[in-house]
Amino acid sequence: MSAERQDLRKAGLKVTLPRLKVLEILEDAELRHMSAEDVYKALLETGEEIGLATVYRVLTQFEGAGLVSRLSIDGGHAVFELEDGAHHDHLLCVKCNQIEEFVDEVIEQRQRAIAAEKGFEMTEHSLYIYGICKRCQAENN
Amino acid sequence: MSAERQDLRKAGLKVTLPRLKVLEILEDAELRHMSAEDVYKALLETGEEIGLATVYRVLTQFEGAGLVSRLSIDGGHAVFELEDGAHHDHLLCVKCNQIEEFVDEVIEQRQRAIAAEKGFEMTEHSLYIYGICKRCQAENN
DNA sequence: AGTGTAAATGAGGACGGTTTTCATTTATAT
DNA sequence: ATATAAATGAAAACCGTCCTCATTTACACT
Predict the structure, then answer these.
(1) Hey, is B99 helix, strand or coil?
(2) A102-137 tens-digit pLDDT
(3) Which among A129, A8, A21 has a CA at the least distance from the CA of A67?
(4) Comparing B75 with A139, which gets the higher pLDDT?
(5) Residues of B in contact with A59 (CB under 8 A)
(6) DSSP H/E element including B83
(7) Left (φ > 0), alpha (ψ -120 to 50) or beta: where does A12 sit?
(8) Superfamily of domain A89-139
């Protein structure tokens, strides 16, 4: 049994062709961050006839099962990434849309402190730094 | 000439009734953070017959003119707030949708440092802390 | 292996927030 | 006053996402 089949079983999901294929796409993609549309197109390219609605459903289930996490990029569509258990925040290039990840314990700590100060029971947070990546600066277009 | 008229002129916008009324709503509202729909409803309550499309247009123009800023809440609709020149981040209650503001210079600084480390020229950032506010915890519903 | 049953899928339409279109109205410069 | 460019209203278009429902599929149990 492949590793993907096991992952799905462990997540309590029936092993179906759409789920296997979506998981493969996410694992094999050179881009770690993909929108539902990206996954759909990648599936088409590999010759799989899987409906867009199914892609959305599967990604949402994967999110619920903890296999992927969903990022809500500023003002736009959702982007998914394979969950690796390690929390991190994101840095986005506003020109090429490349996404980098980072973790900063100082920021994490300050956030907890602020929530506590305000009397909030923090459930989660989202931090995005927007900017122009090194490569795009070099191309300065 | 009212202060609102001057604000609009200064922003390079023609002084029209819809723009004046939207600005008044934002200034007089007890809620500092309002969606386009909120503003639209508030206008109806004051007896102004201004179309929702116009509200969206006006808010977008105000954003471009620096009169308001737009928050992109996780997964949902946009929320607008009067711009007061002072940068701040937000803390949102996931139960009552109340929004609080905060500024933390340590976090600001760490963000700049992270962008620099990664070779990014930072243009902006967005930080939202989600949680349950004190009041909602007390009601524990 | 065969089969019943609940779950998953595909196709297309619905949906909600936001934006566009285009004909009509309005603010401002002259 | 009037010309003209800009702003507005109403309705339709849009876009990402989700739902509906008929059909297919995976899995549990003979």
Answers:
(1) strand
(2) 999 999 999 999 999 999 999 999 999 999 999 999
(3) A8
(4) A139
(5) none
(6) none
(7) left
(8) Ferric-uptake regulator, C-terminal dimerisarion domain (3.30.1490.190)
Q: What is the 8-class DSSP label of residue B111? A: H
Helices B52-64 and B17-28 pack at an angle, to 10 degrees, of: 80
Could you report the per-residue pLDDT of A5-60, keeping only the tens digit for each? 999 999 999 999 999 999 999 999 999 999 999 999 999 999 999 999 999 999 99
pLDDT in tens, B110-125: 999 999 999 999 999 9
Q: Which two tokens stand for residue A121?
A: 């029971």
Q: For residue range B23-55, list pLDDT tens digits in order.
A: 999 999 999 999 999 999 999 999 999 999 999
Judged against a pLDDT cut of 90, whether residue A2 lies above it is answered with no
Confidence of residue B9 (pLDDT cuts 50, 70, 90): very high
* Distance between A82 CA and the closest CA of chain B, angstroms: 19
Q: Which residue bears the tokens 């090429």?
A: A96
Domains of chain A, residue spans = 3-82, 89-139
Rounded to whole angstroms, the Cα distance separating B35 from A42 reads 36
CATH 1.10.10.10 fits A3-82, yes or no: yes
Q: Can you tell me which residue has the tokens 């620099």? A: B116
> Are residues B75 and A74, on separate chains, in Cβ contact within 8 Å?
no
Bases in strand D with any atom closer than 7 Å to a protein CB: 6-12, 15-20, 25-27
Task: Find the helix or strand (DSSP H, E) in which B112 lies.
Answer: helix B105-117
C-alpha to C-alpha distance for B39 and B56, rounded to whole angstroms: 9
Run of H or E residues at A48: none
Structure tokens at A10: 């462990």
Question: In residues, how long is chain A?
Answer: 141
State the Cα torsion B98-A113-B120-A42 to the nearest 10°. -60
